[in-house]
Amino acid sequence: MYGMLLESVQHFVQLEYGEEVWRKVLALSGCKYAVFNTHQVYPDNIMASLASALATTTSNSYESFMMFFGKCFVRFFSNYGYDATIKATGRYFTDFLDNVDNIHSQFRLSYPKMKSPSMYLTDVDENGCILVYRSQRQGFTHYVMGQLEQIANEIYNLNLNTSVVDQEISTAPSGKTLYIVNLRLNFDNSHYIESKKAAKATHLQLTSWLPAFSCDLLFELFPFAVLFDPAMTVVGCGGKLLELAGGCKEQLLRQPLDNMFKLRRPKGIAFTWKNAFYLKSVMFEIEVLRSEIMKKADDAPKESSKNILLEQEIEIDGKSISPYTLRRDSTPGLKNILLKGQMYYLQDVIGIIYLCSPVINNISELTDHGLYLNDLNPHGLGREMVLAGWQNNSKLQYMFDKAEQRATELENNYMLLDTWKRRGDDLLYSMIPKSVADRLRTGHSPLSTCESFDLVTVMFCELVGLNSTTVQDAMELVSTMNAVFSCFDSLMDTYNVYKVETVGQIYMAVCGAPERNENHAQNIIDVSLCMAKHVKQMQMPSRAKVDIRIG
User: Which UniProt keywords apply (predicted)?
Assistant: First the structure.
């Protein structure tokens, strides 16, 4: 999580409980951070540790402090002007709940590593609604409840009561665990219901005289639109998507939707009928997998390419080629096209249509995707934006995603580097005393590391009863010696004893050097007794009985 969330906790705990309590909470929670940076990412467990420490320090419960933290965040982010974004989502609290995912999507520009939850409404009535909260974080339900109660009270002047109706654990498309909680939100929602009824009545009054129209009109207005049924199969699509398939309807219609389209946003959810139906107010971003579509088109029989777009095709070397594939300054089929739009449920056909437009940033990208200006939607400012070369938010988000992916890879590489560094240090310290190796690393002369020690105790331990007469016995002997010596190595640091070397079946160790120790003799005796005890308890790989002789 970002530091701004923890900043809000620190600010209001210090304000309402005092600096002394905050320092005590930091010590009790084991938090190593005294201050938090707004744009720095911190471990998720810090929030829970602080709440647990506060619950131990005071008489309140852990859940109450998680709700308190959520309210603190809402009170805190007004300093950044984020309350204006919430107010702009709609006149009513329900409008805000419908647009939470869109707000998170916009904030990803400023906080690219944000792992935001997903929310949608199911049952809306005059007394409130059911909010489905989905997150990859466990234990933040009461935190969200606190946020919602504070927003309802501070921004919408509503008295909100929240309660958990049901919760379950699922698996996200990425394979990570997804925690799903159904929250009942009780508040005065009568004004919102009345406004919806009035808007519906007005809409019926204005459109009752209009005749019905075919879906073809929508496909004409949105040439990249796609219509799918509850089984998540394609039942209709715009003309430009047909051109991507070489004009062959059989390559798109009645095909599984996820074979040719990949959901990019909202993140962390599966591309299912239920999610598409309930997230109608959320902006969807779907990637057209052109390589899959072109592959299906290439595998199709030649006669299947004769279709409604035949009159737009030309003959080259006996093959029917769509003009779409003739652009020489592009690489069609290699670059996927990103579509952005909303889902709309069509009750008459029992399907959902994705009304969208391609996300194109400038003329250069238009060329790279093998498109022309007249391929874009005839309405809106899409063509003007491409000509002007305006920066598109979705493209910026895509760049953020790539940067985030590279940052994650870099973090993994750093972790791998630390792992190998520790292994290298362990190997070095097994050959050279740690104190000597550290001095050599700091640039000291090798001669300066040579010292004399007046009082030391040296121990020799010999394995008795081991011999080998065949190759198989020799391998078992090596395995047995390795198991015993590895056990001895793990005991050396416990008693501040340094392993010098192993020669054959003899193990040599010393105490009092290279670090002086007044109890060198006692430490050697203790580790010797411990070695004898462990050898008796060990189960050897060769099942042979091993005795040791120490002097």
Answer: cGMP biosynthesis, Cytoplasm, GTP-binding, Lyase, Nucleotide-binding
How many separate helices (H) and strands (E) can be counted in the chain? 20, 16
- Sketch the domain layout of the chain as residue ranges: 1-65, 81-210, 215-258+285-390, 446-550
C-beta separation of 82 from 18 below 8 A: no
Assign domain 215-258+285-390 to its CATH architecture.
2-Layer Sandwich (3.30)
Handedness of CA 378, 380, 384, 385 (dihedral sign): negative
Q: By three-state DSSP, how is residue 89 classified?
A: coil
CATH number of 81-210: 3.90.1520.10
446-550: what fold? Alpha-Beta Plaits (3.30.70)
Q: Which of 342, 343, 339 has the alpha carbon at shortest distance from 376?
A: 339
Compute and round to an integer the Cα radius of gyration of the chain: 34
Per-residue pLDDT at 259 exceeds 50: yes
pLDDT over 90 (residue 186): yes
pLDDT digits (tens, 9 = 90+) for 202-221: 878 777 777 877 888 888 88
Contact of 375 with 223, CB cutoff 8 Å: yes
- Return the axis-axis angle of helices 19-29 and 45-57, rounded to nearest 10°: 120
How far is it, in rounded angstroms, from Cα 502 to Cα 416?
30
The band of 145, judged by pLDDT with boundaries at 50, 70 and 90, is very high
Check residue 547 and give its pLDDT.
83
